[in-house]
Amino acid sequence: MALSFEILEKDIAGRIGRLSDGKKTVKTPALLPVINPHLPIITPREMQDMGVQALITNAYIISRSTEFRERALAEGLHAMLDFDGVIMTDSGSFQLSVYGEVEISNQQTIEFQQAIGSDIIVPLDIPTHPDTGREQVEEELAITLSRLKEANGFANHANHTLAGPVQGGLFEDLREFAGREISEMGLKFCPLGAVVPLMETYRYKDLVRVVMAAKRGLKPGICVHLFGAGHPSMFALAVAMGCDLFDSAAYALYAKAGRYMTTHGSYHLHELSYLPCACQVCSTHTAESLQKSPDKERLLALHNLHVTLAEINRIRQAIKDGVLWELVDERCRGHPQLLRGYRELLTFGEELKQQDRVSKRRFFYRGTESCLRTEVLRYHDMVERFEVGKRALVTFDQKVHSGYDAVFFFKPPFGPYPPELSETFPIGQSEIPDWDNEMVKSGCIGIERLAKANPDTKIIVRCRSIWKNIIESNAPSVEVDLEDL
Asked: Which range of residues forms the domain containing residue 37?
């Protein structure tokens, strides 16, 4: 039975969802660890015991293996790997991206993936490098879409899900076009392909633009898989864009290189004097004993996978609580390029606010970036609906004044609000430090929108003199009054 995708909770564009075929279920966001059947440093059964509900392996490698090909065909993939959850198989596109060619056709890889009982199968798409020129990108995208249509047409997909990889290089219009074409095919599971080079070179700003473009083309009910995303420091950013699944061998590759993962980056094990984690590995070893252990690589892999899975749970809880923006802000300040990606994501605020939830647990102001969050943009839209009468006051002193048809208090970065809304979100659930110029400028956007929506109303802003220039520059339609302060 093909997998269905149900969205249970939302925050920004992030979702908690359920991917299910009636027997096997994957709670999203989720990580699909990569399994190399030749060298499983952590076995699939061990991963399942750790809470892993889905994994990914390479059908091309299995099909070319004298050791595993016949076993997979005879026993089925789940029995061969000893894993009861959802298994996704890659077609050989990874090898195609590395070596430039593979000895298998699109039809052959689809039929082999079906034969071994894969739950999610992938056609032989062309993973175009992000820096490829447009003409080549267009040609290879056409091949990918042609192969996907071929796979969608000749194969019986009743017992598995056909994935629709979204390619298009760095060209946002092509990514959006690919997403729209795949959506029209009726596919419900779409990986975003050829983005690993962006993550390997910390080009998170480009990654954000690529993902957001693809999401514009994809229907909202499609489960989105970000191919090759494996470091926990960037998961929150990816989830905020609407990515539901990740796959990576980073937990093992980092361990092989002696690297110790954390949610804010990675360390070489020899750099550590202490282990900043309480997983089973770290609670039973010191940094020195782990460094000297003959089983160091496996222990590091176990730690890395534990940290990665824990971050997935942390993101799920942030979505449920409506505080995903705070988590994204925290994680993205761990690296300058992640911060660039975060700031780029904020430029898509008008798109994101359409998907974000209306009410949340809290709003924490964390600097200039907070002024561009969806909650602030939505509040500025709401300001235009306030009733103001002929003469209205916006006061910074939080005191009720007489002689006006309407009195509004002021709270940056949102702007004016009637006293009746002082306990509602986001005014009552926001924590704001000492006012700074950027948050007051943002609040003035709300004042100006109130004035523009009511051109026949005289709006007076009563404030201290230190804010006078900012108000006059950012809310020129109002009158500033410095009296009685």
From this structure: 4-352
- How many structural domains comprise the chain? 2
Does a structural domain hold residue 156?
A: yes
Cis peptide bond N-terminal to 426, omega within 30: yes
- What's the pTM? 0.94
- CB of 449 closer than 8 Å to CB of 388: no
pLDDT in tens, 124-161: 999 999 999 999 999 999 999 999 999 988 767 788 99
Digit-coded pLDDT (tens) for 41-64:
999 999 999 999 999 999 988 998
Integer Cα distance of 187 and 189 in angstroms:
6
Around Cβ 235, how many Cβ atoms within 10 Å? 25
Say whether 277 counts as a known binding-site residue: yes
Pair 53, 94: CB distance under 8 Å: no
Does the annotation place 282 within a ligand binding site?
A: yes
90 is catalytic: yes
Do 323 and 387 belong together in one domain?
A: no
Q: What is the CATH number of the domain that holds 129?
A: 3.20.20.105
194 is in an annotated binding site: yes
Q: Which two tokens stand for residue 105?
A: 């056709």
Catalytic, out of 11, 90, 247, 329 = 90
